[in-house]
Design brief:
This protein is an alpha/beta fold and 194 residues long. Helices cover 22% and strands 28% of the residues. The strands form two sheets. Strands 1, 2, 3, 4, 7, 8, 9 and 10 form an eight-stranded mixed β-sheet that branches. The N and C termini lie far apart (46 Å).
Length: 194
């Protein structure tokens, strides 16, 4: 527990250039770092015999849950969060494994728009602590019912604001056309998956 000075005390003594009671923002690195693992070891451990080195890997159960969720209502956009881990192979690049696709509660969706509310994020974080303690948020997914699979301007803003790391994935699924696309990083570059 940290002892805090009384509210009426001037807390500016540690920073002579700041104003009294002014919050000073200090940038710091992210806590989460990709796990160092050769991609050949990663694939061997999972029984992946495909010789291609893709940047995104998704489990069958995660893909099944994602599709079931987004097919449950094809009149509005729906979405959720992707859990898994990011890895780095020093001789290759950063790559990501998606192990779970979790529907976001309390979202607001229309035929062409999806909004994650603060209640959505709180519900996701509470659920993650209990059910995915060894995994991290590695991206998000959402539907484009009968619109095709692409990253709209709003989707790109979401990607850049919240999922900007090189290992962050966005999955767009059109449940009407049964079409899916995967996008990676802040610029949402389209990628293939295993």
């Amino acid at each position: 527990m940290v002892d805090l000075p009384p509210i009426d005390q001037d807390n500016s003594s540690s920073n002579q250039n700041s104003e009294p009671n002014k919050i000073v923002w200090v940038e710091s690195e992210d806590v989460y770092k990709p796990i160092r693992k050769l991609i050949k070891d990663f694939k061997s451990e999972r029984g992946i015999t495909n010789t291609k080195k893709e940047r995104v890997y998704i489990t069958e159960i995660a893909l099944q849950n994602l599709r079931e969720h987004l097919c449950s209502n094809i009149t509005v956009e729906q979405g959720g969060i992707l859990f898994g881990n990011a890895y780095v192979d020093p001789q290759y690049t950063v790559y990501v494994e998606i192990k779970s696709a979790v529907a976001a509660p309390s979202t607001i969706g229309t035929g062409a728009h999806l909004e994650f509310t603060s209640a959505s994020w709180q519900g996701i974080m509470d659920y993650a602590k209990i059910t995915h303690p060894q995994e991290n948020i590695v991206g998000w997914y959402h539907s484009h019912p009968n619109l095709g699979v692409f990253m709209s301007g709003t989707d790109m803003n979401t990607q850049r604001a919240f999922f900007y790391h090189p290992w962050c994935v966005s999955i767009v699924y059109d449940p009407v056309r049964d079409d899916i696309a995967y996008f990676l990083g802040a610029n949402a570059r389209r990628v293939n998956v295993v």
